[in-house]
Amino acid sequence: MANAPTAHRITLGNRPLIVSDIDDVVLEFINPFKAFLGSCGHVLLPRSFRLTGNIITHADEQPVTEPEVKILLDTFYGSQDRWQTPAAKVVETLAALSEEADIVFLTAMPPQHAAVRRALLDRLGLPYPLLASEEPKGPIVQKLHGSRTVPLVFIDDMLRNLRSVKDHAPTCLPINLMADSEFKALAPKLDADIRAVADWPEAAAAIRAHFRG
Predict the structure, then answer these.
(1) Are 55 and 30 in contact, with CB atoms under 8 Å apart?
(2) Residue 139: which of 112, 106, 109, 164 has the closest Cα?
(3) What 3-state DSSP class applies to 153?
């Protein structure tokens, strides 16, 4: 999408920065995706912490192939505004945090669906800048934050993204936040220096403590 925002086009103030993932962090993903799959004859089984191999066709109970999974995800993202809902307490928590920090959303999603997500976020009261990219998140956050010395927080549900940002922005506070579902217990063990939180109020407490130093 030619006019999709990029890191260098986002203007930040001289205050702390919070960068947050979207799916299963700001917006519910697993339950809406399961509902979407059910509408087209599939089911998602909690057998491992991945989609490929765990999406089954109702008709023959066979796993959907990886190319088919990508098609299903693409279709879901194209109609995400019909399915996805905000995580508990996220709207009010981010509104309060935005009074003392800049907030940017960084979503691992094909950029062509950014306009649909942008409209959904705006409708839900989440008006913060949005970056949509399938590239590693560490270099994006590094470019976004630059050489500034203000506090940096990164929130994501995926360990690989948290590690990527830690590698490229070592001063950041990495926070693992994942919407509660049967897949949460299947997630890989976190590194010792990643802060795990159960919900947005707990995340806010950790963020404010980091801001205070």
Answers:
(1) no
(2) 164
(3) strand
**DSSP conformational letter for 86:** B
Phi, psi of 73 (to 5 degrees): -60, -40
- Residue range 153-191, pLDDT digits in tens: 999 999 999 999 999 999 999 999 998 778 888 899 999
Residues of the chain with pLDDT > 70, as a percent, come to 96
Look at residue 1 in the predicted model and tell me its pLDDT: 37
- Residue 5 Cα to chain centre, angstroms: 17
Helix (H) or strand (E) holding 56: strand 55-57
In this structure, the chain runs to a length of: 213
Identify the DSSP state of 64: P
pTM of the model: 0.93
- Tokens representing 14? 């001289």
CA distance 16 to 12: 9
**SS3 category, 155:** strand
Residue whose token pair is 């990495």 = 174
Residues in CB range of 73: below 8 A, 6 or more apart = 51
Question: Looking at residue 61, what is its pLDDT?
Answer: 86
Pair 97, 104: CB distance under 8 Å:
no
Cβ atoms within 10 A of the Cβ of 45, count? Answer: 13
Q: Is the per-residue pLDDT at 5 higher than 90?
A: no
**25 and 87 Cβ atoms separated by less than 8 Å:** yes
Is the pLDDT assigned to residue 105 strictly greater than 70?
Answer: yes
- Where does residue 146 fall: left (phi above 0), alpha (psi -120 to 50 degrees), or beta otherwise? left
